[in-house]
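Protein Record: Sequence and Backbone Structure Tokens
======================================================
Scope: a single protein chain, as residues and as a discrete description of its fold.
Tokens: labelled as protein backbone structure tokens, with as many entries as the chain has residues.
Position: the record begins directly beneath this header, with no further notes in between.
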Amino acid sequence: MDSADLRRVISSPVLTRAEQVKAMTAICAKASMDDLTSNFVGVIAQNRRLPALLSMIAAYLNELSRRRGEATAQVISAKKLSDAQLQAVSDVLKKAVGSKISIEADVDESLLGGMIVKVGSRMIDSSLKTQLQQLHLSMKGIG
């Protein structure tokens, strides 16, 4: 089962409550999750709250990072970054932020080049797409 299948199970209004509980129980068992986590996911499924599960996971990971003194950076690039490139970005962000950084890397081919980096409420957009949009607006006399 891939993430698309999981999303279908989580968001499907067609599946009954029992079917969702059964599917999520099987997923937890296959993933070798401990009893506490499996029971938690079972309660979420039983209460028909599976659509909120991904948000709960994200909130938990954010809180865990905060308690560890880490900051999470979302890095969106035009192409998949190599391990060396991710490490270089991590090193620069660590110096700028002053704490450990965990990176969530995504790819958006529409950026054409460059990257967008978000750390907390700060965002640095050095994408070619944005630069071209700004140039287009300035040539129109709007920017």
